[in-house]
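Dear colleague,

Thank you for sharing your sequence with our group. We've completed the structure prediction you requested, and as agreed, I am returning the results in plain text so they can be pasted directly into your records. Please verify that the sequence below matches your submission; if there's any discrepancy, let me know and we will rerun it promptly.
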Amino acid sequence: MGWLAYSGGSETTNVHPSITPESLIETGALVIEAPLPSDFRAATLLEVASLHPTPSLLRVQSIPGEGFSIFISSGGNVFHALISHTLVARTDSFRLTLNWDATTGDGLLSIEHPGDDALFTSELTGCIAMSGALILGALSEMRLPDAQKELDYIGFHQGPLSVGTTPTLDYHTPVLTAQGYRKIGMMKPGDTVISASGDIVPVLGVFKKVTPAFGSYAPVRLRAPYFGL
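Please find the predicted structure tokens below.
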């Protein structure tokens, strides 16, 4: 199914029709991107509470000297996780991704700096399902001006979401081959391309990732002289 819901502010919210307050997402991912908070004070980046259909809470906090804390409760189930990092407040932003599988209880919490290869991960146990009420509540929070100051965007994905270095070129980006330019999204392993040195080299692998077009994933428009423009 891909992305269940995401929001980059009051005018950029999308929710899949299957998400209702009664929904329970057994396997999925939560991702947020935001400016890195100060090292000297605790900050609540996101807090969502719901009473229907069952009491539930989602809270993401930055804790000085500790890292980040995620707390989720739903009915009688409670999940809490901590992750440390060495990023500093001068860093432009960070991306936090929580992958959970309530069927096994396993999960992975990660912190990334989109500008380089900094990646911190923590393996989790005891993960619980995410309620649709919390997902809808988080999107409602993103419509508030205060939340938009804290978060660049928030997204909920159906199933696991990869972390670390990701593809950065749009499907339609032209790549030079011996037969002329082709869209990079049409390439497959075994095809050949012209390298920067003029050599003909094979494509060894193709990697794709669909993301909301917010934060560090926002498209960048290239102008002349790129790609013969």
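Summary note from our side: The chain has two domains: 3-158, 174-228.

Kind regards,
the structure core
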